[in-house]
Structure formats: C-alpha cells, structure tokens
Specification:
Helix content: 40-55%
Radius of gyration: 12 Å
Number of helices: 2
Number of strands: 0
Shape: globular
Number of domains: 1
Largest sheet: none
Length: 48
C-alpha cells in the first residue's frame, strides 16, 4: 500500500468536489481519491 499523505475522507470531501468532470478523452479507471493521494505523495516526497 502506498504511503498516505492525507486521509481518504479529507481528499474525498475537500478536494475531489472541486475537480472538473472530464469533457473529452478517457475516463480514469482509478478512483479520483487514489489519483489525488498519488499526486500529493509525489509533491511531498519529490520526484526522483
């Protein structure tokens, strides 16, 4: 399991509602909560 930067409930309730729905292209297969957690993890730890 990946390191948790924020709790899933915080990401789901305070970040995901502000993300716009996709207008074209593909729809993500992973839940937006996991995508948001991955982005925050990379921002916190730095990109190698």
């Amino acid at each position: 399991m990946m390191y948790q930067v924020l709790d899933k409930d915080i990401i789901e309730n305070e970040i995901v509602p502000y993300l716009p729905p996709p207008k074209r292209g593909f729809f993500p297969k992973a839940p937006l909560v996991e995508i948001g957690n991955s982005i925050l993890y990379k921002l916190k730890t730095g990109v190698q």
